[in-house]
Fold DedA family protein.
Amino acid sequence: MSDGPLPWMLTHGSAAVLFLVLVAGGVGVPIPEDLVLLATGILSHRGVLPLPLALAMAFCGVLCGDLLLFLTARRLGPALYEHRRLRGLLPPERRERLARLYARHGGRLVFAGRFLSVLRGAVFAMAAVQGMPVRRFVLWDALALCVSVPVVVGLGYAFSHSVDRVTRGLGRVEHGVVITAVLGLVALVLARAVRARRAERGISPPPPRAAKPPRRRATP
């Protein structure tokens, strides 16, 4: 196993340590979130953490980190865009594009952003600056975590005997999760667009056919 944060977490990891690392990663500390989730699954397989506790801890840790980032961005407002890390990640043209996407899709953009490791923080910060309510952010982020957390923790649990191989293949798994999430999002948007177009045209689904009354038997 190569040197890095993963071996350290497997040696010193506990529920409290992993939770704090996930929260710290959510607010910008350069610790790969997926490695922490992998370590959580591996430690669960080794009997250090019961699997239900591992999943709950991972879910809450990531959600708390995301929420802390969201609240910080909301407090700073548009001044956040001048931060040295976000100036390169969110140039004016990309900022305008994200703002248009947010105006059109709202919470669905937060859902998709959770699977984009490069733009995740920028998408969450944009949602905060655009004035998304906290409850709505938590709802969409939690829905995305219901997909991502079990997948990555389960990957670490199932393949704990081959950590290096799992780590190398994590990018492909994340790519597959992104494709699945985007396809689901596209299907949802298309379904809503079709319903909206039908409503504009005044087209409603045909009423159910009334059941035919039973034939009366002729009396002798």
In short: The radius of gyration is 23 Å. The mean pLDDT is 77. The chain has ten helices and no strands.
